[in-house]
Specification:
4-stranded antiparallel β-sheet, alpha+beta
């Protein structure tokens, strides 16, 4: 079956792939693997074992992996090309899918806030080490990848997307500021105190 080649629906402009997935209850790892792949793909849950994604090429690989995992687990999966019977049905599906993306963006921005809080704490306690910087840069890269994935899946444009992009920019600027502080601290030359003239150290006897 080809994905993404359905054309436009005259009433709503969107065609959908609906997946009906059944996976044996045991061992549970198979069900978890299928569920995780569906979530990773960005599929919209319509009920127990029923999922939907817009019929666009972006989701083809994810659907293929779900079908493969289901078959490997000894389960069954049926994929259907669908449209709403009327424009109201199409709009409802779009709204549900966009609401799911809004929830993803909210989770993303919450993690941006955690990242900013973590950097602020390291600055407050003056923890300026290369090891900590590397860890923070890895966290930032994870946020970047997450942002790219969410942007790709957000095919209808959730209203939170723009704010999320700005939050990522704030995180990037904060990490750059922290990096500068780390390099400044590492290259700082410790002050060397010169002994005061004529000052005797404790226990030093005056010459005779």
């Amino acid at each position: 079956m080809e994905y993404g080649g359905g054309g436009d629906d005259a009433r709503d402009g969107t065609r959908w792939i609906v997946l009906v997935v059944r996976v044996p209850a045991e061992p549970s790892r198979h069900r978890v693997a299928v569920w995780r792949e569906l979530r990773k793909t960005g599929a919209l849950s319509l009920g127990q074992g029923v999922w939907a994604v817009p019929d666009v090429p972006l989701f083809a690989d994810g659907i293929g992996r779900v079908l493969e995992l289901t078959e490997r687990a000894g389960g069954e999966a049926v994929s259907l090309a669908a449209t709403g019977r009327g424009s109201q049905d199409g709009r409802r599906l779009r709204a549900m899918f966009t609401a799911a993306r809004s929830a993803d963006w909210a989770e993303f921005m919450a993690d941006c806030g955690k990242f900013e809080t973590e950097l602020a704490k390291e600055i407050r306690i003056a923890k300026f080490t290369l090891a900590e910087l590397e860890e923070e840069e890895q966290s930032l890269e994870r946020l970047r990848r997450w942002h790219r994935d969410l942007t790709a899946r957000d095919v209808f444009g959730a209203p939170e997307a723009a704010e999320a992009g700005e939050r990522l920019k704030v995180c990037m600027a904060a990490c750059e500021d922290y990096a500068e502080r780390v390099f400044t601290a590492l290259h700082q030359v410790p002050e060397q105190r010169m002994p005061e003239e004529g000052r005797r150290e404790p226990g030093e006897e005056s010459g005779r």
